[in-house]
Design brief:
The protein is an alpha/beta fold. It has helices at 12-27, 51-62, 84-91, 107-114, 130-144, 162-171, 191-199, 211-214, 234-240, 248-251, 282-300; strands spanning 40-45, 66-70, 97-102, 119-124, 151-155, 178-182, 205-208, 220-223, 259-261. The protein has a five-stranded parallel sheet. Strands 2-1-3-4 form a four-stranded parallel sheet, sandwiched between helices. L-aspartate binds at residues 80, 162, 225. It catalyses: carbamoyl phosphate + L-aspartate = N-carbamoyl-L-aspartate + phosphate + H(+). Residues 2-141 form the Aspartate/ornithine carbamoyltransferase carbamoyl-P binding domain. Catalyzes the condensation of carbamoyl phosphate and aspartate to form carbamoyl aspartate and inorganic phosphate, the committed step in the de novo pyrimidine nucleotide biosynthesis pathway.
Length: 306
């Protein structure tokens, strides 16, 4: 039995197999429509979510399985003081696989240690978000044709952004990757990722404050929102939330083939006027999230489809 806590739980070869499977699911959805008939997915979301929770549910339903679970801690026995370990022991009696989101870093790992079923980390605090990373990699590979030889701009909340942290961990394993880290001083990438991941793997990177400075050099721009829920006080959030706004004027500085990704939800960091730009692929990215979660569920449940 395997769990998925981090993108690094998968080798590059295993990752490529999941992405290949996701592409096949996209091309031949009917082939997989009953692959998980009789199987149940438990969605254990201690923190609000729209895309991740619903895409997991859509993935399992598309595979012919069923779904149970809760969408907030308030609607679970956590309000009565039940531990994560006890919850997953109980859920293991009801479901075949679980996806867990939790505000505390490491909570899904605690669950995995006590679980009788595969556990997927669907986001833990500011730590990791591996299925979003799989979604990002599928989007990039499908639309760019490769995961190597790319200059990638990461913009916004690089300090608390778990999607950014997971994506960096995954992409450093591919050749020719270069990062441009775009953030205000207060939201810079944590030292441990800069030193232990980028520098240790000899991955070139530059740090800039102005988005305009970076745009002409990028193959991909990964925008993120400033996350209100990660701030300790309202004043700091209000000061930082509008630091970056991507609009049509700024897009004129970007190359004709640069893609814009965003893990969503957005607030106002990408103007709605950019949505019609063919380089804006964040809604297509959300659709890729369903395919990749279908592939991951099949892989962890060891379901083979001929």
């Amino acid at each position: 039995m395997r769990h998925l806590m981090s993108p690094l739980d998968l080798s590059v070869e295993e990752l490529d197999k999941i992405l290949d499977l996701a592409n096949d699911i996209e091309a031949h959805p009917e082939k997989y429509a009953h692959a998980c008939a009789g199987k149940k997915l438990a969605t254990l979301f201690y923190e609000p979510s729209t895309r991740t929770r619903l895409s997991f549910e859509a993935a399992m339903l598309n595979l012919g399985g069923s779904v149970l679970g809760f969408s907030s801690a308030d609607s679970s026995s956590a309000t009565k003081g039940e531990s994560v370990a006890d919850t997953i022991r109980m859920i293991s009696c009801y479901a075949d696989i679980a996806a867990m989101r939790h505000p505390k870093e490491g909570a899904p790992m605690v669950a995995a240690a006590k679980s009788g079923i595969p556990v997927i980390n669907a986001g833990d605090g500011g730590h990791q978000h591996p299925t979003q990373t799989l979604t990002d990699l599928l989007t990039i590979r499908s639309l760019k044709g490769r995961l190597s030889g790319l200059t990638i701009g990461l913009c916004g909340d690089l300090k608390f952004g778990r999607t950014v942290h997971s994506l960096i961990n995954a992409l450093v394993r591919y050749e020719g990757i270069r990062f441009v880290l775009i953030s205000p001083e207060e939201l810079r990438l944590p030292d441990y990722i800069r030193e232990d991941v980028l520098e240790r793997n000899h991955v070139p990177y530059t740090e800039v404050v102005r988005l305009e400075e970076a745009l002409p050099t990028l193959d991909l721009l990964y925008m993120t929102r400033v996350q209100k829920e990660r701030f300790f006080n309202e004043e700091d959030y209000v000061r930082m939330k509008d630091f970056y706004i991507l609009d049509k004027k700024k897009m004129k500085l970007a190359g004709p083939d640069m893609l814009i990704l965003h893990p969503l939800p957005r607030v106002n960091e990408i103007s709605v006027e950019v949505d019609d730009d063919p380089r804006a692929v964040y809604f297509k990215q959300a659709q890729y999230g369903v395919y990749v979660r279908m592939a991951l569920i099949l892989t962890l449940l060891e379901v083979k489809v001929c």
